[in-house]
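Practice problem: predict the structure.
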Amino acid sequence: KERHRQNSAREIHRFRDRDQRKIQEKLAKEKEKENEKIQKQKRLDRLREQVDIEVDRDPSRLLKPTAGWTSRLKDKGPSGSGPVIQMPHRYILHSSYKVYICVNMN
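Answer:
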């Protein structure tokens, strides 16, 4: 019984030591993460100081087309001879030996 009690005491001591190490490692990791977060925030603040943004509020610009859209419309010229009333659809049916091309006039 005495030997069993001594083994139990050693094991309990070993578990407590291990738990203390785990807790210390966890706290060190959390502290390191916090330091990284602070360093990142400092870097971002320095970058923000370098870039000074001055933008006037203009709610009407939301309704204006973008520069890309206006250039796209500029490139588009007159095409065809008027509005298309009906466009036939082309079907391509594959057979094992032949390819059939059908035009649907619906």
